[in-house]
DNA sequence: CTGTTAGCGCGTTCAA
DNA sequence: TTGAACGCGCTAACAG
């Protein structure tokens, strides 16, 4: 058993400061108040600095039962939206624990979906879930916060996707669009169903004769490009004047595919989507999209999770719903 | 001290199977061969399944000295290139440890830079570094692998950025460009310096009278847009016919800024860069860029790190250098 | 082939 | 105000 060379341990600090390990523990954990004299405390602090002592996370976890780690489960962190959620979650964790404390652990950085084994192994105190999957059994009461999954029970923070979808429907209806293609995804996420349903309902309400057709492709650039290249002519033949994608990534791909196919946007076809990732603003043409606060989603989720872990609120309160709003840019125009 | 309700422990499994904890430990860790009879082994396996037992990661880490976690230090995983590196690293870790084992821990998901505290706290067995920063003291011999940092010592995997840069120089020189603007970054990364120097050297070698001007901006879309909007006219006035950015992100921003300013690309100005993130292919016009294998960089780095941790090779061998190649698309054309 | 037992480093109760 | 001692769950010598 090769073991890394010894770092300073609490015993060493204790010896160096001429106190017991208990005292060291107290000052390290901020429980010195009324238990350790200021002078002693300082001696311990000096010893810690001198020895470069850092509490061993594993030992502490074993002793306290808290890992100081939380996981963010997502299916693909290569997706800009997910990356923003993660960045927000990291910020939220730092914020909620005072910087020093829990840290963020990303699983499933790939399309293959998260490896949830660590969750079962009690590597984490809680989980932020941003994909519809199942947790490993064996940890039934692990604190969990669902992100952007309105259908999930329990603690959750989501976004007012419906409001945004309706705003988009109004925008398009006002532009005269009556036949729009909705580009969904093969993934059964409740948020996507919600986007589609709210959009459709509002469009039909505003324009009774309107028709919403359906198509779908994976959430990635290449899939969008391919789909548009293959289906653009059919869409046009079907009388479609606008396509609404579930995500910006798909829409940006579609934009590229349409450009390659020589279909003018928004001249011949309007394109809109959801998310407002940074690339949406620099697409050609700049993409009209329902801006979803990804970063804030992650941040709020992390703060909520930290609260649940700390025991602030064990009962799932009102789900947190973040605002979404339509950002009109140049990819949408009057129906032709 | 509130403690989560008890999950099954090794003792429970042992009791359930009518064996000792040692036996349980052996079968759990795959060391049953020649020590535990197949029948006993099966009994233990059944007990594990029945009880839903999962080894506690903290306890195991404390006992073995290995955390089964590695960290990837990066400054912003919101950057598509970084995200790919991370995805590759996750795959590499899984590959090197047989899937069940080390997991990836991302730090510094933000622009603020990584929070290296966990490294000091011995939360990880090794570190993958993708930014020029310092590790916390106190862990002098922690296994480290540098990614895309040719100037770093020790174990490292990088990319043949120089070859790519020279190829780009040849491409541009062949197109008649003699005055090109190099768009660098404020960050002192050795890889960026290398990109610039190799490009410049080759261009001057091919076209003795050529001039490479300098400008710089942060590695993000908005910075590129802003810079182009502000400086495009000056660049043109200076006789610049091509701009080479250190990263695709900057270039894509520049493309958008140029479009807004009404400067035709590649008609009036050619634009090229490094990385080949997925968005480069769908930019308008599609971006000519030096493709850098981000995913493979992460994967190889992880595999190498796993090897170092396992003790396969403690001496930094030949640095791994991955190939880079120029991908010519439509953003570059003849100098005007 | 299987069981016993001593740590791993830290947190915390209890006694001093 | 401080120190001694036990337990967290697991691994791995060492006995048997």
TrEMBL record, chains A, B:
Work out whether the entry's keyword set contains DNA-binding: yes
Q: In the record, what terms sit under GO molecular function?
A: DNA binding
Which PROSITE patterns does the UniProt record give?
HTH_LACI_2
The domain of life for this entry's organism is: Bacteria
What organism does the UniProt record list as the source? Klenkia sesuvii
Q: Which SUPFAM superfamilies match?
A: lambda repressor-like DNA-binding domains (SSF47413), Periplasmic binding protein-like I (SSF53822)
Q: Which InterPro entries match?
A: HTH_LacI (IPR000843), LacI/GalR-like_sensor (IPR046335), Lambda_DNA-bd_dom_sf (IPR010982), Peripla_BP_I (IPR028082)
Keyword Hydrolase: yes or no? no
Q: Which CDD domains match?
A: HTH_LacI, PBP1_LacI_sugar_binding-like
Name assigned to this protein: LacI family DNA-binding transcriptional regulator
Domain HTH lacI-type spans what residues? 8-64
Print the keywords alphabetically. Answer: DNA-binding, Repressor, Transcription, Transcription regulation
């Amino acid at each position: 058993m090769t073991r890394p060379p010894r770092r300073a341990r609490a015993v060493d600090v204790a010896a160096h400061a001429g106190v017991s390990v208990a005292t060291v523990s107290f000052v390290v954990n901020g429980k010195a108040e009324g238990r350790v004299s200021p002078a002693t405390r300082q001696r311990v602090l000096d010893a810690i600095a001198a020895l470069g002592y850092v509490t061993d996370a594993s030992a502490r976890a074993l002793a306290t039962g808290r890992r100081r780690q939380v996981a963010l489960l997502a299916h693909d962190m290569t997706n800009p939206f997910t990356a923003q959620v993660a960045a927000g979650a990291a910020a939220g964790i730092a914020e909620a624990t005072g910087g020093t404390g829990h840290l963020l652990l990303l699983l499933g950085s790939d399309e293959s979906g998260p490896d949830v084994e660590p969750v079962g192994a009690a590597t984490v105190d809680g989980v932020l879930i941003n994909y519809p999957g199942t947790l490993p059994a064996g940890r039934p009461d692990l604190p969990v916060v669902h992100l952007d999954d309105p259908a999930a029970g329990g603690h959750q923070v989501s976004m007012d996707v419906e409001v945004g979808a309706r705003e988009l429907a109004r925008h398009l209806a006002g532009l005269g669009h009556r036949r729009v293609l909705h580009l969904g995804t093969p993934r059964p996420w409740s948020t996507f169903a919600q986007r589609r349903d709210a959009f459709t309902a509002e469009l039909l309400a505003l324009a009774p004769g309107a028709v919403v057709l359906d198509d779908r492709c994976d959430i990635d650039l290449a899939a969008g490009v391919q789909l548009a290249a293959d289906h653009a002519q059919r869409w046009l033949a079907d009388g479609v004047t606008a396509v609404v994608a579930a995500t910006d990534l798909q829409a940006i791909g579609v934009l590229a595919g349409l450009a390659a196919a020589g279909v003018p946007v928004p001249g011949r076809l309007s394109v809109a989507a959801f998310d407002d990732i940074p690339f949406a603003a620099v697409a050609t043409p700049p993409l009209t999209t329902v801006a979803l606060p990804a970063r804030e989603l992650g941040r709020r989720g992390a703060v909520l999770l930290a609260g649940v872990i700390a025991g602030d609120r064990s009962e799932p309160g009102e789900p947190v719903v973040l605002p979404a709003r339509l950002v009109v840019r140049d990819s949408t125009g009057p129906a032709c």
